[in-house]
Amino acid sequence: MDQSQQAQIEIYLTHLDALIRRGLVLRDRLLSEPPNASNGNAMAETRAWQEDCGITINQLSGGSKAHWLARAFSGAFLMRSAAGQAVEAAAPSEIVQRLLDVLEQAVSTLSAMDGGKGTNGSAVSGNAPASSNAPASSDAPPPHRFDFVHNPEIRPVLEQAYLDSRVAFDQGAYDDALRTTCGILEAIVTDALEFKGIAALAASGIPASDLAGGKTAGGKISDWSFNTRLAVAEQARLIRGGCARLPAIARTYRDQDADSATGPKTTERDARLASQVLHVIMRDLDPGR
Fold first, then answer.
1. Which of 117, 144, 153, 159 is deepest in the core (most CB within 10 A)?
2. CA-CA distance, 194 to 182, in Å (whole number)?
3. Which of 14-18, 86-90, 125-129, 134-138 has the highest mean predicted lDDT (pLDDT)?
């Protein structure tokens, strides 16, 4: 790779980093202040950010709408039916998160490049899926969303589960989406608690009864209930209060019978809220995101 090409990549990476930082602020703002007539500025800023993302994606894809990055960008604005047909626009915060995923894919690909421009004049080469919700191909490395997780063995499992939850949601399989999302949430919170350790948690002033997890004192964190893990993580200030928005059906996701005809049914709103909470907790556990 010559110096001019290296400089071009560094410029793009710097610009993408700035866009990602703007997007994270907008996403958190939209999650805490749902769009309405009183916060039109947030929506105006979001539209401006989306336009800036579009310009950058167009440059990176060499102006080709068939390029994987351009298709991923377009797909971020749509929700799909079980048959794969576009049915409606996604919520603003969801669109922002999907575009962040696309930008992260671009960063990963640029960072991994070892020479030259891509094909057809694009700065990013390779073939990746049309949707940012589908697994990336070997030519376009997927973003590493879970590098903050201390246990390296579960990181690739979490990455795949994250993608699976997005696909399930887009296909209208809301129960599968919610269960997978809650599984990810439980795994990353458990990882944070285990890394801190029972002794450190106790030293931080958390009552022994809470650390017992409803069982005998000194029990393993992995034996605690989902709700206990969330509560202790908040008390230890590992996470903030984002879990307050978690729907009741998500808190009991382990106990729900997916095949039951009489039990509560997971709604689109339930699955969406669970996904939003997951992103907030990921931000808490990885402040650099």
1. 159
2. 18
3. 14-18
Q: Measure the CA–CA gap between 170 and 101, rounded to whole angstroms.
A: 15
The token pair at 211 is 């650390």
What amino acid is encoded at 276 in this protein? Q
Alpha-carbon distance of 25 to 239, in angstroms, equals 17
Kindly indicate the confidence band of residue 123, based on its pLDDT and cuts at 50, 70 and 90: low
Write b or e for each residue in 104-123: b if 16 or more Cβ atoms lie within 10 A of its Cβ, otherwise e: bbbbbbbeebeeebbeeebb
Contact by Cβ (8 Å): 272, 249: no
Alpha-carbon distance of 90 to 227, in angstroms, equals 29
On average, the pLDDT of the chain sits at 78
Q: pTM value?
A: 0.57
Please check whether residue 72 is in contact with residue 130, taking contact to mean a CB–CB distance below 8 angstroms: yes
CA 202 – CA 103 distance, rounded (Å): 40
| Cβ–Cβ under 8 Å, residues 188 and 158 | yes
- Helices marked H in 91-211: 92-112, 155-170, 174-196, 198-203, 208-211
Q: Which tokens is 166 given?
A: 């997005």
User: Quick one: average pLDDT of 100-116?
Assistant: 74
Cα 13 to Cα 74, 80, 218, 263, 270: the distances in Å are 21, 31, 47, 48, 36
Buried b (16+ CB within 10 A) or exposed e, 154-163: bbeebbebbb
Residue 239's SS3 state is: coil
3-state class of 90 per DSSP? coil
Tell me which residue of 191, 230, 196 sits closest to 210, measured CA to CA. Answer: 230
Of 28-37, 65-74, 76-85, 200-209, which one has max mean pLDDT? 65-74
Residue 80 parent element (H or E): strand 78-80
d(Cα 92, Cα 90) in Å, to the nearest integer?
Answer: 6
